Amino acid sequence: MTGETTVRTAVRIHGRSTQRKALRALLDALPHHGGHLLVAGEPGLGRTTLLRWAARSFRAGPVLHLGPGPDGGAHVTVEQLLDTLRAASAAAPVLVCADDAHLWDAPARTALGRAVRRLSTADRVGLLLSVASDRAVAPEFARMPVVHLDPLAPSGAAALLDDATDGVAAPAVREQLLAEAEGNPALLVALARRLSPAELRGHRPLPRPLADAAALAEVAGGAPSDPSAHARDLLLTVAAAGQTEDGTDVDAGLVHDALRRLRPEPGPGPREEPVPGPRADPGPGPRAEPVPEYLVLAGDRLRFRSPLVRRTVHATATPERRRAVHRALAEVLETGGHRLTGLLHRSWSLGGPEPAPASADRPTAVADRLAAVAADGAVPAPHRLRATAYARAAELTADGARRAERYTAAAEQALLAGRPDRARPLLAAARDSAAPAAVRGRAEWVRGVTELRDGPVGDAHQSLLLAASLLAADAPADAAAAALAAADAAWAAGDLSACLATLAPGPPHRTENPAPGSDGPADARSAAAHTAAVVHDHRVGMRALLEGRLDRAGAPLGQVVERGRTEGRPETLLRSAAAALLLGDVDAARRGGARALAAARQLGSDTLVPQALEYLAYAELRAGRHPQARTHAEEGLRTALRTGQRNTAAHHRAVLALAASIEEEPDVVARHVTAALDTARRHGLAQAATLAQWAAARADLGRGRPFDAADRLGLLVLPGPGRGHFAVWRLAVPCFVEAAVLAERHEDAREVLTDFADWAAFGADPQAAAQLARCHALLAPADHADALYRRALDRHDEAGGDFERARTALLYGKWLRRRRRPREARGRLGTALAGFERCGAGVWAAQARGELRALGAAPQGTGTGAPARLGLLTPQQLRIARHVAEGATNREVALALGVSTRTVDYHLRKVFAALGVRSRLELARTVGEAEQAREVRGAGESRRAGSYEKTGAQH
After folding, report:
1. In this model, does residue 429 exceed pLDDT 90?
2. Buried b vs exposed e over 526-559: b needs ≥16 C-beta within 10 Å?
3. Where residue 269 falls among pLDDT bands split at 50, 70, 90?
4. What is residue 356's predicted lDDT score, i.e. its pLDDT?
5. Residues forming beta bridges with residue 290, ordered by sequence position
6. φ, ψ for residue 58 (rounded to 5)?
7. Is there a contact between 462 and 489 (Cβ–Cβ < 8 Å)?
8. For residue 487, what pLDDT is reported?
9. How many C-alpha atoms does 187 have within 13 Å on its Cβ side?
10. pLDDT by residue (tens digit) across 630-640?
11. What is the arrangement of strands in the sheet containing 250-251, beginning at the earlier edge strand?
């Protein structure tokens, strides 16, 4: 260690809004009733910090802190503890905090658990406990509602690091700190603290390893210790084996065989007896080892209870013992034919690189073999493992250019594995000005693709352009692919001129290496040639399309779509889906997206899965299939967040907002719009921003707020510097025209119809012709509107799509009703209602029902069955439904009923299914209608009873 940076320890909490909301609900409820909550997480994730935050935030009464006695116990009985707590809460509510309750001795934990169960809500005692993650299921804590702490998301970890260091860390240093901490806030601060100011600013190399034994032990609460040498070796062997398993569970048989090589069966003489307990030995062997408390044995798999403890065990072992364990694992794996993992463990049993000629057992020779096996597509291995192999080979490589090439290959594999957080530090390590242009170009290519998915797209554009120029001489086909990716970045940014400039014709191409993101080996020339042809056709067609020359765009883009019918590579299939969307062929886009998704999953390309889902979701939206779009986007959002692709996540949030905008979920629309715009504004995603803003406006229009909708949409579609994305704003024109007509802004509506007419004639949107006729009908005088509405409906029949056709039928029905043509209006409105219900457009269906009621027609299913449906619920489900209908959150319902949040979640799903509702808003309406019907029925019964009594008295 060369120094220490002054890092502030009192920093604000980052990324824990959900957990703090749960704690706040407990604190806010204490003046009225008691409750309890368990905070669970592994060391360093902030259990203690959250308890301190709660204690500082509680103002309604005193705060008590419970802790163990000198030897780990609380030394009180259950009655004593209850008496103490009830006495403390007699005058005012009291908050009781017990940090690290799992460290108490068994009698103390039992007393605490019984006290929790025996306290009633009337006692006004709030119990807030924290335990290690694996102890949350212990009998004494199992009945408590749990708030789980997960590692910080990348954005939260980055904000914490900037807060702790005042933002002085160099970008490359920052990326390495974030990757090494793996979302553990305490470890992140500890790693920053151990760096000198020069190291933090990037003026001096970082120490290796960055997360050393001292830092890990500090956060983990010390290195695990065990008096048994066998147990210590078992822990270290499981930790070492996890290096190739990404820290997850490992094969107990592998561990057993490695331990036999590490500790051969002793000869005659005294031997240590194993400690009784669960066994890690899955079969016959020289001895059965006990499983230490830090491990979990599940079937034939072993894992650490805490990933941080696993890292600490490995780091705190002596270098000699650590190398011996890796050597034993290498021998077992190589004997079993596991070439890549065996070589990796062999490399970890060695030291660093040496410049001299190497024998087969020396580091440089092992590095060459390791890189060769990692590059061999015939060797089955996930991208994550190949990334680890390339990175280790780079560490053992003395030659600078070759080291840079291997770090770049490692970053590429990390990106394919969905770990951009791992790719960035590897790219930083790959920087070498002496490396050949082709090596530097490939590194810029990987860096640009990384930023395109999870960073400012303007930066991605520049990196990809630089990659294209560096690759042009030695790898022109790769240069063309990098240039097309640069055009993708310009497209995402909404920069039309940059997109056209990037798509300018380039020199003829020849094939060399597969692109970043591809799965084939470098010598697969036929696949590379196929990919190069797709890149060329897509580039030519996309430029022609942006220049408005559909006659020149159709053929090359059609070739890209056609190749998707027989292609099996996910990146080519993604290009096929994108080309189909450009041409307006939504069925081909759906097929291409579905095939790309299947191919990405089959090949283990985790980073391509959310992109395939994005194209699928867009295709479903364009086809008017909003429920299917929502399904794909929900999965896409989960996978994008899991694989660190915030830009892709923003696009999925925009799709979810658009899908929710036709349903009765304004809060869902607002949540997705806010999240999408947050990323879009920071990363320059004009396309995602335009879609999100359109969703917010369409939600306004659906809820009968045309003035708000017209204001929002006017910024997107009217000419000016703030107009939306060049390829998206026209899609929002029909919504704007409808809102503008209702808001008496007829001239604004007419202004955009000329451009929209050109777009409809272009043929890239199957709905545009029908929408154009509808827009003209809205603006037409009465003697022309009727025919225009009919023409629009005829065009909808040709294009398909329930939602847009139902919107036209609704507007036509409204127009007919206002012209006193009730019979015709009834038919159109009924058709609209059926269409909206068919596609799940609840908010628009409500408009249709309102129009039908105005005609005196009572649409079916508008509340008459609500009391009967509520009768299907159990008493507990009915209580939960009523609380939710009153606006309570799941946490508030749990506290009110004295159950866990998990129980509320379970019952609420049953309630939604039984009542046939899809949102809390629908649930509130159903419960309200049932309560109103019950009141009406009760009043009627009272009147009948009064009449009977009066009649009886007269008789």
Report:
1. no
2. ebbebbbbbbbbbbbbbbbbbeeebeebbebbbb
3. very low
4. 42
5. 279
6. -80, 120
7. no
8. 94
9. 29
10. 999 999 999 99
11. 250-251, 301-304, 295-298
